[in-house]
Amino acid sequence: LDADNYETDPCLKEIRRAENYSWMDIITIHKDKLPNYEEKIKTFYEEHLHLDDEIRYILDGSGYFDVRDKDDKWIRISMEKGDMITLPAGIYHRFTLDENNYVKAMRLFVGEPVWTAYNRPADDFPARKQYMKFLAEEAS
Fold first, then answer.
1. Per-residue pLDDT for the chain (140 aa), expressed as one digit of tens each?
2. 29 with 63: CB under 8 angstroms?
């Protein structure tokens, strides 16, 4: 994806159309740009899940998404400018900045955004159960 021209990027436009990402905003995570920076960073790093997919497109800077694999071990995913990730509903994850302490990301949603994070343990939610079923099916 062309992060420098995200406003007019035809590939991004097609992804948004195909996936029905009707809502978006941009967040800048930096101590001079994000109110309550220290508190937010701690919240992002707390292991949690969401009941909807989490879609992030890195417009500038870099950071890491950590996700749990089928054996409950961490996998670190390095994200940098131009990268997009979709974390499925029900997956435990966390986010942290790298040594640059800066990232600018587009947040995409189907419909209205839902910001609620459920810290671990949150295994009783249908989204978690559906995700675990998906993992089991993929393993077989």
1. 999 999 999 999 999 999 999 999 999 999 999 999 999 999 999 999 999 999 999 999 999 999 999 899 999 999 999 999 999 999 999 999 999 999 999 999 999 998 899 999 999 999 999 999 999 998 88
2. yes
**What is the domain extent for residue 101?**
10-138
Pick from 116, 136, 132, 130: which is nearest to 49 by CA?
116
Q: What is the DSSP letter of 32?
A: T
Element (DSSP H or E) covering residue 23: strand 23-29
Whether 3 is covered by a domain: the verdict is no
Tokens of 74: 């961490």
Single out the residue of 18, 20, 10 nearest to residue 108, CA to CA. 20
Which residue, chain included where needed, has tokens 């940098």? 80
Say if 1 falls within a structural domain: no
pTM over 0.90: yes
Distance (Å, whole) CA 137 – CA 132 = 9
Q: Any idea what DSSP says for residue 102?
A: -
